[in-house]
Write a structure and sequence with these properties.
Helix content: over 70%
Strand order of the largest sheet: 1-2-3
Radius of gyration: 22 Å
Largest sheet: 3 strands, antiparallel
Amino acid sequence: MKRLPTVYLPLVLAYGATWPWIWGTWHFRDAYYEYAPLVVSLAVLWVAWHRRRFTQLDAQVEPRAWWLLGPGLLMHLAGAALAIDSLSAASLVLSVPGAVLLTEGGPRFRRLLPVLGLLPFVVPLPLVASGRVAFELKEIAIEAGLAIANVFGADGLRDRASIAFHGLEGTLPVADACSGLRSLLALVTLGYVFAFFFGEQRGARRWVILLAAAPIAVVTNALRIAMICVIARYCGVPTALGTGHDLANLFEWVIDLAALLALDAVLSKRRRS
């Protein structure tokens, strides 16, 4: 009971100005972290559900936790002093595990590692960084998607921030959402959950699934754009912007999930053999 008032409550209060920034970034227009509140909620439920497993282990004070908590708090102080909210938010990746290790001890900390590992996936990137990454991903997705679509007769041509088609009226606007950063972050998070909460937890399976999630997301986003372009060619631009866009989004996630499941099946089969 003493851990709440002596460690966790002061930590929550110390980050008082950071929580609104995180929450606002999660719900920012065209946000890339719309999935984060759901992930946090499920993580809390997972800890509550498995609480009995942790309470069977003795809580211990672990002084070595300051190797995590100390740098985390220094990062937070620097972010607060420089008014850089993203730096303060990033320090949570060190501060929260450090606080847990300090108050709960090594055995409980190791049981909680899968949940603590979710922190980098829900703490938002600085807006400058996410904007730059989104721009680069959009360039890759548009060029690759248009090339694939033209193989299937789309006959499209990029015109700055839009895609035009020979002989068709109207163009497909290329919005920032077309970068695929949102789906990349969500799929990598899903890949982590899939790898570290389900299935075989030994060997290279977990890391292969986690590392494969990002390239899968990039490829399927290019296929999504290609599909929209093909629909525009054969069904018209208005259809592509409406029903076609929705179908392409569904297609992308079906392929994403199928790829993760297929990869897991292959890795599990190889390990059993």
